Each structure stands twice: as C-alpha cells, then as structure tokens.
User: What shape does this take?
Amino acid sequence: AVVSTQSTGGEEIRKIMMVMRVCLNEEERELLGSATAYLLIEGIIPPTLLSALTQDHLVKDDVSASFATSLFRTWLEERDMASLTSTLKKASLDPSLQDIYPAHKRSLDQIESYFKEKGMNELVNHVKAQRANANRKNFISRIKRFTNEDDYNTTEMGEYIRDAISQERVTSPYALQVLFSAIANSGDWASQENISDDFYKELKQYVPLFQTIIDTPKMQLELLNKIQEFCYDNINFLKTFQKIIFLLYNGNIIEEDSIIGWYYTHHSQKGQREFLAQMDKMVHWLENAEEEESDDDDDDEDEDDE
Assistant: This one.
C-alpha cells in the first residue's frame, strides 16, 4: 500500500514537473521544489521522479536549476548533505549536478559560483568534492595511459604531473602515489608471487621522471611513505621495499638524509616493523659513510693547518 501510494503521488508530482516550464512562474516552481523536498523526506513520493529534471525542456532557461535549488535549500534545513546525496543517487542523477544545468552553465566552476551566490555553503563544498574526485579520476587515467604506452614520453609526463600539482588538481603525495602504483601495476610482475627483476628494470626507466618532480626533501619523504604503504597493501611487493629504495637512492631521487629521517622519525605506521627491519643495514651503511666522510673532511682540515 505504501509503495502504491508513493508511486501514485510521485506520478502526480512528476506530471506537474514536466509542465512547470509553461504552467508555473518562477515563484510557483520554487514552491513546488520546496514541497517536493518535504514529500521526499517523509517518503510520500519516490526519489526516482527527480530524474525528470534532466529533460531538455526543463534544463533550458534554468527551470530545473531553480526547482532543484529550492528543493535543496528546504532539504538542508531539515536534513543533511549526506542524505541529499543518497537521494540524488537513488534518482540516478549525476552527483556533480551538471545534468540539470544548461550546457553553457554546467562547468563545476560555474555551478560552484551559482551555489556560492545563493549562500548554500554545503552545496559549494559538495561541488568542490565532486571536482576533486573528477580531477583524481582524470589524473589516474592519464598516468595509467602514460605508463602503459610502449614509447612513453617522460618529459611530457613530467610536465603534466608538475602542472597538475601546481594547479592544485592533485596534491604531490597523491601524484607520487598514483605514479608509483601505475608503474608497479603496469607489467606481468604485478600478479607474480615473487616480483621479477623486470619490475626493477622498468622502475629504473622512470628515474629521470622522478628527478623532474621530486625537488624537495619533503617530497622525498612523501615518496618513501607512499612506497611503504603500497608495499604493505600489496603483499607480493612486501619484500621489495629495500631494493626499491636502494634503486631510487642510486638514481639520486632520494637522499641519505631523507632515508635516515624516514627510518628514525617520519615513517608510516603501516608495516613499520617489517620495513624498518629491511632498511636496517642500508641505514647503518649510510650513517657510517657519513661519519667516514666527516672524518676525511677533518683530516683535510688538519693537513691544511699544518
């Protein structure tokens, strides 16, 4: 009975929505949007009726946008953004809300500005989250395409990654995580129980790329931790950590100070016992090399004094 009532009520509202462009003025459409929010919240009508908002004749002239804005405002006065997002999902509406805006107004920047002008901060934050999610998806797709090409261009890839970071489409830790993960998963070794030498040969080919994007000690530490977390999350890579770090150290990607700092203080908590144990000998070797270098410098100074 509830389903039948919901279906009947929903169909009546949908019929009104379909003709609201010609039969209702803007104020009446906003009242309809607000009333629809209450009916949805109470479960009297089904969320699926909102799919009508993507109809071309309603999208035109901001009719859908006006109706939806009133609905959203009323909803957020009674409920929260998470429940609204869930309802939009049930209605099969794009969570970015782009489908209910005319083509010339549906960029995420425009939609964000629209809600900002309306003083609807929760929707502003929602759109920002949608943009960030879209940026991450596009970045992953582009990096995977780069790493799966037989004749990839490291210069082009380096420029793309630097631009993505500088324009804040992705953060530097995320960029390094995606890049390393794409390289690690680009060959047959990714499904092997014991990682073959082919992986290390492939990784070595990317040393020039890492050199172009890792230009601070902070980014070196970020790379160390992203590799640590990847090796922890992918069990077949668990024993590869030290060999990977040694390869990147020899390629002048990660410096000894960063490795030592990671070892004593800045490592991730994920699998720390395993990875610190793997790095014991290398760290002690680096520390002894620094001490010997310091002693040599002192001897040189003594000779100069004589």
Notes: The chain has a mean pLDDT of 91.
